[in-house]
C-alpha cells in the first residue's frame, strides 16, 4: 500500500496524517498498478475493492484489520500505517526512509507495543543509518540518558555480559555456566531455596534466549544440547506444576518471589507432528532403537502441552509394528481412547450421557472447558438430601476429572 500525491515533497521531520480516501492524485500508470494489486488482494481474501474513494477507504480498513488479526504476514507501505494504527502482534519494521524527531518516533512506535513475555520489544531494521537521529529523538521527547534503556544492546553484550552503571549484567554464557555448575544434570533440588534459585536462573536464561533469538548470530551458539534443554525445561515445568498446586492456578506469579516464564516455554512448544515423526523413525528401525524412545519421552516431558498426553503416546508406541500406518492409526487410537475415557467418567460419576457429550464437544469446539455458570450443573444428576451425598464435593471431583480429560485430548481432537 502507498500514499499518493502529485510530486509531493518528502518531509523527513514529520509523518503527516494519512489520507486513505483520496485517489485523485494518481496518474494512470500508478492507478493501474494499484488496481492490479487490489485485484490480487480481492482474489486472495474474496473481497471486492478498487481505487474508487469509498471502496479504497474500506480496503484500507480491511488491510488494517487483517494485519491486527495476523492474516497478513508482511505489508509493504509508503507513508501508510505510520499513524493511527496499533497492532501489538507486529514485531518488525523495515525502514528505508530518512526519519527524525516526531516522524521517527511515530514510525518506530508501530512495532514497540508489548504483547506478552515473548514479545517484550519490537525490532527495527534500518537500511539507512538512523542511530544519531534515534538518539536525538529519544533525547528530545524523553530522557537524554534513555538511549541505553530504549535501545537493545548488541549481540556480544547479551551473549557474554556487560557492565553498566557500575553493575555487571550476566550474559547468556555466564547464565548457562551457573546453571551447569549449580544444577548439573540430572538436576537435584534440596529444599525450596534451591528450587527457587533454579526457577529464577532458568527464567533468566529463557528471557535471554528470547532476546538473542532476534540476532542471526545466535544460531548454533546455544551451548546446551537440545536434550539438555529439554531435561532442564522438564524440571522447570515440574516445579511450575508443583507450585501451581499450592497457589492460584490462574497466576504465573505464584508466590511473591516466584515467577514462571510460561509464555516463553510455550514459544518453543514441540507439536504432535514432531513426535509422530519420531514414532515413524522408531518403526522404520524395527522398534529396536531405544534411544528414539528416550528422545520421545524427553521431548514430551519438556512440553507444556504434550506432557498431559504422555500416557497416550506411550500406549500408542507400545502398539507399533511393521503394519502400522502411523498417522492414520494414531488418529484412530486417539478417537478410541477418548471415547473409552469419557464413558468411564460418565459411568463412574453417573453423569447424564447426552448432556455430558454435548458439554465436552462444545469445550473442544470453543477451546475452553467452562466450569463456571450452569453448564457443568446440567450434566450432574441431582443428589438426594437423604442419601448422604455432597453435591459440592461431587461437582469439584467431576470438574477435576473432566479438566484432566480435556487437557489430555485438547489439540488432538478434530473439530467437525
What can be said about this structure in brief?
The protein is mainly α. It has 17 helices and six strands. Helices cover 52% and strands 5% of the residues.
Account of the 3D structure:
With 416 residues, this protein is mainly α. The protein has 17 helices and 6 strands. The protein has helices at 28-45, 53-68, 101-108, 131-141, 147-150, 155-160, 172-182, 192-212, 226-244, 262-267, 272-284, 290-301, 310-318, 326-349, 353-366, 375-379, 391-409; strands at residues 92-95, 123-126, 162-164, 167-169, 253-255, 258-259. The strands form 3 sheets. It has a two-stranded parallel ribbon. A two-stranded antiparallel sheet has the order 3-4. The chain starts with 27 loop residues before the first helix and ends in a 7-residue tail after the last helix.
Which terms would index this structure?
416 residues, mainly alpha, two-stranded parallel ribbon, two-stranded antiparallel ribbon, disordered N terminus
Question: Helices and strands in order, then pairings?
Answer:
Layout: H1 28-45, H2 53-68, E1 92-95, H3 101-108, E2 123-126, H4 131-141, H5 147-150, H6 155-160, E3 162-164, E4 167-169, H7 172-182, H8 192-212, H9 226-244, E5 253-255, E6 258-259, H10 262-267, H11 272-284, H12 290-301, H13 310-318, H14 326-349, H15 353-366, H16 375-379, H17 391-409
Low-confidence stretches: 2-9, 13-19, 248-254
Coarse morphology: globular
User: Beta-sheet strand percentage?
Assistant: under 5%
Instruction: Tell me the radius of gyration.
Output: 28 Å
Q: Characterize the main sheet.
A: 2 strands, parallel
Mean pLDDT: 79
Distance between the termini: 37 Å
Percent range of helical residues: 40-55%
Please provide the count of β strands.
6
Order of helices and strands: HHEHEHHHEEHHHEEHHHHHHHH
Can you list the strand order of the major beta sheet?
A: 1-2
The number of helical elements comes to 17
- Label the structural class: mainly alpha
Amino acid at each position: 500500500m502507498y500514499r499518493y500525491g502529485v510530486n509531493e515533497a518528502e518531509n523527513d521531520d514529520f509523518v503527516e496524517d494519512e489520507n486513505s480516501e483520496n485517489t485523485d492524485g494518481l496518474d494512470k500508470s500508478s492507478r493501474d498498478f494499484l488496481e492490479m494489486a487490489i485485484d490480487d488482494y480481492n482474489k486472495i481474501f474474496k473481497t471486492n475493492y478498487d481505487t474508487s474513494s469509498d471502496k479504497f477507504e474500506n480496503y484500507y480498513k480491511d488491510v488494517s484489520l487483517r494485519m491486527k488479526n495476523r492474516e497478513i504476514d508482511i505489508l509493504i507501505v509508503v507513508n501508510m500505517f505510520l499513524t493511527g494504527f496499533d497492532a501489538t502482534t507486529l514485531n518488525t519494521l523495515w525502514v528505508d526512509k530518512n526519519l527524525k524527531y516526531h516522524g521517527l518516533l511515530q514510525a518506530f512506535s508501530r512495532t514497540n507495543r508489548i504483547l506478552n513475555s515473548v514479545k517484550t520489544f519490537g525490532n527495527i531494521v534500518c537500511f539507512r543509518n538512523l542511530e544519531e537521529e534515534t538518539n536525538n529523538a529519544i533525547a528530545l521527547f524523553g530522557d537524554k540518558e534513555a538511549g541505553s534503556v530504549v535501545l537493545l544492546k548488541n549481540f556480544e553484550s547479551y551473549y557474554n555480559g556487560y557492565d553498566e552503571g557500575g553493575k555487571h549484567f550476566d550474559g547468556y554464557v555466564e547464565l548457562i555456566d551457573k546453571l551447569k555448575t549449580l544444577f548439573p544434570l540430572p538436576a537435584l533440588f534440596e529444599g525450596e531455596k534451591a528450587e527457587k534459585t533454579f526457577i529464577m536462573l532458568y527464567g533468566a536464561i529463557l528471557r535471554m534466549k528470547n532476546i538473542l533469538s532476534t540476532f542471526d548470530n545466535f544460531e548454533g551458539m546455544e551451548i546446551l544440547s537440545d536434550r539438555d534443554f529439554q531435561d532442564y525445561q522438564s524440571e522447570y515445568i515440574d516445579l511450575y506444576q508443583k507450585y501451581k498446586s499450592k497457589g492460584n492456578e490462574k497466576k504465573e506469579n505464584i508466590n511473591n518471589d516466584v515467577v514462571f516464564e510460561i509464555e516463553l516455554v510455550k514459544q518453543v512448544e514441540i507439536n504432535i507432528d514432531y513426535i509422530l515423526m519420531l514414532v515413524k523413525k522408531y518403526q522404520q528401525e524395527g522398534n529396536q532403537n531405544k534411544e528414539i524412545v528416550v528422545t520421545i519421552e524427553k521431548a514430551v516431558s519438556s512440553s507444556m502441552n504434550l506432557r498431559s498426553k504422555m500416557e497416550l503416546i506411550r500406549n500408542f508406541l507400545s502398539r507399533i509394528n511393521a503394519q502400522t500406518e502411523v498417522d492414520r492409526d494414531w488418529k484412530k487410537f486417539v478417537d478410541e481412547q477418548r471415547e473409552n475415557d469419557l464413558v468411564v467418567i460418565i459411568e463412574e460419576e453417573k453423569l447424564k450421557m447426552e448432556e455430558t457429550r454435548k458439554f465436552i464437544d462444545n469445550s473442544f469446539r470453543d477451546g475452553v472447558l467452562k466450569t463456571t455458570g450452569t453448564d457443568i450443573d446440567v450434566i450432574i444428576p441431582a443428589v438426594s438430601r437423604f442419601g448422604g451425598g455432597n453435591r459440592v464435593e461431587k461437582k469439584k471431583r467431576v470438574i477435576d476429572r473432566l479438566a484432566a480429560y480435556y487437557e489430555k485430548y485438547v489439540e488432538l481432537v478434530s473439530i467437525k
